Amino acid sequence: MYAEWSPEPALAGRIACLWRQVSEDDRTQLVVPDACVDLIWGPSGPFVAGPDTGPVPTSMHVGDIFTGIRFKPGATGEVFGVPLSELRDQRVPLDALGALPPLDDAPDPMPVLRAAIADRLRRTPPPDPAAPAAAAALRRGDSVREVAWELGLSERQLHRRSVASFGYAPKTLQRIVRFQHALRLARSGVPLAEVAAVAGYADQAHLSRDVRRLSGVTLSRLAA
């Protein structure tokens, strides 16, 4: 069972959602890239799920509870005290990072996580204000060169700021946000034959290759 809800106004500028998942059976769940970073409290304690560039199969056992706070794309900033590129494709125990104080165990860890993140957000600089605009333009289908020009940056500057804000280069960011757009379209009922054109892929084959690269499975399986 999975549920998510919106954060309180004080966190809404940086946090996409709060969520909780209780596994109802023993299974492997496929986590796919979404340009987000999550702080998660699982059966082994709190950890950070860094920005993914490929599928992450996650083993879950019946009764396992995962509680999480998901940052908006590009909104993590310096919260965890290390460059996001060092967290790319990683699951790192929170105490290994040292940016947040040790968190006390609790029957419901969400208030603990929420308070720790709220305090940390007050103590760190805001994220790059250009990050949301860059992600939106890349999702829209603009090229990296066009996005850099729109933001008044050189391509090298855009690359550096993308790595700082998202953990990876603009081209990777473009593949991920376009993939997520295609996945939302498919799940909303748009016929798969139309998804490629609407999401900005060159053709159906291009869509299939990118989905396989980022998730390891077909779009129809993900959408289901």
Question: What can be said about this structure in brief?
Answer:
The chain has helices at residues 94-97, 110-123, 131-140, 144-150, 155-166, 170-187, 192-199, 204-215, 219-223; strands at residues 2-5, 15-22, 27-31, 38-42, 45-49, 56-60, 65-71, 91-93.
Features of this protein?
alpha+beta; 224 residues; two-stranded antiparallel ribbon
Strand order of the largest sheet: 1-2-7-4-5-8
Number of helices: 9
Tell me the β content: 15-25%
Determine the mean pLDDT.
95
> How is the main sheet built?
6 strands, antiparallel
Overall SS class: alpha+beta
Can you give the helix content as a percent range? 40-55%
Total number of strands: 8
**Overall shape:** globular
Residue stretches low in confidence (pLDDT < 50, at least 5 long) are none
End-to-end CA span: 16 Å
- The protein's oligomeric status is single chain
Rg on CA atoms, Å = 18 Å
Series of secondary-structure elements, N-terminal to C-terminal: EEEEEEEEHHHHHHHHH
Description:
With 224 residues, the chain is an alpha+beta fold. The protein is built from 9 helices and 8 strands. The strands form 2 sheets. A 6-stranded antiparallel sheet has the order 1-2-7-4-5-8. The protein has a two-stranded antiparallel sheet with strand order 3-6. It is globular and about 50 Å long.
